[in-house]
Amino acid sequence: MPDDEDALVATIDQAAMLDQVERWAAVNSGTRHLAGVGRMAALLADAFAVLPGEIMLVEPEPAEAVAADGSVADIAHGRHLHLRVRPDAPVQMLFTGHMDTVYPADHPFQTLTRRADGTINGPGTADMKGGLAVMLAALRAVEAAGAAQLGYEVVINSDEETGSLSSAALLARAARGKVAALTYEPALPDGTLAGARGGTGNFSIVVRGRSAHAGRNPEDGRNAIVAAAALAVRLAEARAPGLAVNPARIDGGSPNNVVPDLAVLRVNFRPAAAAEIARARAAIDAAVAEVAATHDVAIAVHGGFNRPPKPLDTGAEALFGLVAAVGADLGIPIAWRATGGVCDGNNIAAAGVPVVDTMGVRGGAIHSPDEFMIVDSLAERAALSALTIHRILRKGHA
């Protein structure tokens, strides 16, 4: 590598990064644990204040959820961190991550364990407090090397693990005009990155029937549980190679001697391509109309497709190629493969911005008490990001 790139990488301090990860992972920041998320936001604001620009803690956009009783209510979320640096610079990039984890305040997985194999087991170490440390270290290295022509935005949201419902608009605004984006979800333990991604849509479908005595006059009732079950079966029949459908849960019901008048069906759809979203919507509409007529019930559909599919278009392929070339110069093999998982990279790609969304640490067993981060991947991945940013700045594009 050129001397300036060697010097850039030499500024990365893995010990300092590890200290950050351990302090951050000690804070429970499950999405719904607002006090913990608030504490995490304050820690991140302090840490990212070493970068130039203006840091803001942005109020969440309104988001709703359907309760088990069929009522619709607002969901409270924490504030999102937003940093803007040199908005008038000629080369503009976006860097994103999330401060929330999947572990609620009362989850038993709360502590860190250093293992003899060079990993740390702990909540959020890989997903993605390690990734946030990588992002910050890379940006600090780039700033230290001189980045007057680079402008960027950093968005670290508080609700990624539950679909970014209150931060999607902020992400869309931040993506405008960017030549490329890097997101810091974890890579696989062997370093493999996520390439193309499918999309996702979550729906809560409220079925309202009519109660009646189960023995005396059941024919006067309209069984919402039976109708919801029929709807689940009907939607499951919409499965296809490009569309996974998972009827996941039915809330509601009544005592055994009462015909139940309420049920809430929860369904997840995973479209592999944009065209499958239209097909899924048509399937929902047809199934709802058929079941409502057949069972004489009222049905209301709540939810939508919050993560569009993320194909590998020419811009994304060019960015992956650049990351792979940087990896080769660092002695890091870079490969990628398609995945059915989703993240904020889906939303960024939908805004027309090339994105690599697994630039975080190497780790695994995420969303489980076995979650781990490979310690040596901190400096490795920070170097990969820093040089990728440096070369995009030098070229003016991905």
From TrEMBL:
The organism of origin for this protein: Sphingomonas taxi
Keyword entries, A-Z: Hydrolase, Metal-binding
Domain Peptidase M20 dimerisation: 197-293
Active site: 100, 160 (proton acceptor)
Gene Ontology molecular functions: hydrolase activity; metal ion binding
Name of the featured protein: Peptidase M20 dimerisation domain-containing protein
Transmembrane spans: none
